[in-house]
Amino acid sequence: MKYFLIGFMGAGKTTLGQRVASFMNISFFDLDIYIENKYKQTISDIFESKGSEYFRQIEHMSLKEIISNYDNFLLSTGGGTPCFYNNLDLMLSVGKVVYLKTKPSEIYKRITANPEKRPFLKNVPPNEWYNWIEKTMKEREFYYSKAHIIIDSSFVSVEKIAYYLTL
Ligand code: S3P
Known about the structure:
Layout (H helix, E strand, L loop, with lengths): L1 E5 L6 H12 L2 E4 H9 L3 H27 L3 E4 L10 H8 L1 E6 L2 H9 L16 H16 L4 E4 L5 H9 L1
């Protein structure tokens, strides 16, 4: 089975995904890390040097690559992955998609602790970060909410996610 974790940046997709995959004894991929290894550049550098259009193209190609080359895995996607090209439909059609839903206030706490890792925040003044998170999350909710399974990330455990995945 192919499992996909989607959700806003800072939702905990990478940390939880890794732990759930190891609990379920399946392979783990993180789309951002896959891209960084493949293109030998950090996500922030890719955004800065080649722009977001280019990033979305290589993100789409990398997603397709993982889907066609592997089976039995859990993939943590980037926050924007389900919102570009046909990425969401693709994931929905080949596997099980789980949305880790997180409140804007929680996201704000987490991502402002480490803002340099978030290319988007570079274009937004710090006093507008909270509003930006709320607005962007509302826009993306349209995609995220189409997941097969929606889990509130504040009440979640590795075992619970693994349980939901196997339903
Ligand atoms: C993005 C989220 C990031 C990364 C890129 C774009 C987004 O992933 O893919 O910076 O559009 O929200 P994380 O959600 O893992 O931070």
